[in-house]
Design brief:
The protein has 307 residues and is mainly beta. It is 13% helix and 37% strand. The protein is built from 2 helices and 20 strands. The strands form 6 sheets. The chain has a 5-stranded mixed β-sheet, with no helix packed on it. The radius of gyration is 63 Å and the shape is elongated.
Length: 307
């Protein structure tokens, strides 16, 4: 009897030092459709018999367990009408009676039908291609877009040709295989987990032949040339010339014509002097001038002078 009492006391002491663990079964992320009720599934248990008490936080604000929009249950938190602003991280806290607590975070994604893409335009058309550009739907930032749906058809056709693009971060795509001189109509829609949204406004274009001018090339800049002036050719009077310039009164070149002129003048004066002397004694004198000399002849005045 004494041994049984000791064993029971030992179990009580050991169990009193053991802290129970809280277990969360709360997958993340979880996706709900906007404008519909949504359950954030989160089951909280412990390794003992006690059921933990749960509380919820969203954006650091306590969520009412029995409020107008939210209700806490054994299976999680029910949101009566899910809206786009409910997307984000929801924090669930489990608490035991001994004060032990633990938390878990659940990411909530709100799906909704997206609006129509904006500002659809067709750019840089060629003989068989066109570039489709557009903007994201208004208010689609909280949504997770899964793909773009681009549709086009030729004039007179009822069926649309559909091109899907899964890279929703890009909002421009080339469309090829178009026919020259054909008119095409384009439209674009966005899609989420909730489904396909509304189409954009339709835009039409006629594919015409485009003549691409040859690329213009800019000639390279010519090399810079440095101009070196030729050596200075100063006049003889300014240069260091060893020749002496003639002074006034000196003649350069052949002196023969000057000497001939002087000689002619002297001979003429001499002839005139002789004429004067002979005339004084009654002698008739006549002279002839040749190219370089003067020839004078005399005759008695009693005779008839020569013709």
């Amino acid at each position: 009897m004494k041994c049984a009492w000791i064993a029971w006391l030992l179990v009580f002491v050991l169990s009193d030092g053991v802290v129970a663990q809280i277990t969360f079964d709360c997958p993340s992320p979880q996706t709900g459709l906007a404008n519909n009720p949504f359950l954030i599934y989160c089951v909280v248990t412990s390794d003992g018999e006690e059921v933990p008490n749960t509380n919820w936080l969203f954006n650091s604000v306590i969520v009412p367990n029995q409020g107008d929009r939210t209700t806490s249950t054994m299976n999680g938190l029910i949101i009566q009408n899910l809206v786009l602003s409910d997307a984000g991280d929801w924090v669930c806290t489990g608490e035991l009676s001994n004060g032990f607590t633990d938390t878990v975070t659940v990411r909530v994604i709100v799906d909704d039908f997206p609006g129509p893409p904006l500002n659809l335009a067709l750019e840089t058309p060629t003989t068989s291609n066109v570039l489709v550009t557009f903007d994201r739907p208004e208010g689609s930032e909280p949504l997770v877009l899964t793909q773009w749906i681009i549709e086009y058809r030729a004039s007179g056709d009822d069926a649309w040709t559909t091109v899907t693009e899964t890279d929703t971060d890009v909002t421009e795509f080339p469309i090829s295989g178009l026919v020259l001189q054909e008119t095409y109509t384009f439209r674009v829609a966005a899609e989420t987990g909730a489904g396909r949204g509304d189409y954009s406004q339709e835009v039409s274009i006629t594919i015409t032949e485009v003549t691409t001018p040859p690329p213009t090339t800019t000639p390279p800049n010519p090399p810079q040339q440095t101009f070196t002036p030729p050596p200075s050719t100063a006049p003889a009077s300014l240069a260091n010339n060893t020749e002496t310039s003639p002074t006034i009164g000196q003649q350069s070149g052949d002196p023969q014509p000057v000497l001939n002129s002087i000689l002619t003048i002297v001979l003429g004066l001499l002839a005139a002097l002789i004429v004067l002397v002979l005339a004084g004694v009654g002698v008739y004198v006549w002279c002839k001038r040749s190219r370089r000399r003067v020839v004078c002849q005399t005759q008695d005045t009693a005779k008839t002078p020569p013709a």
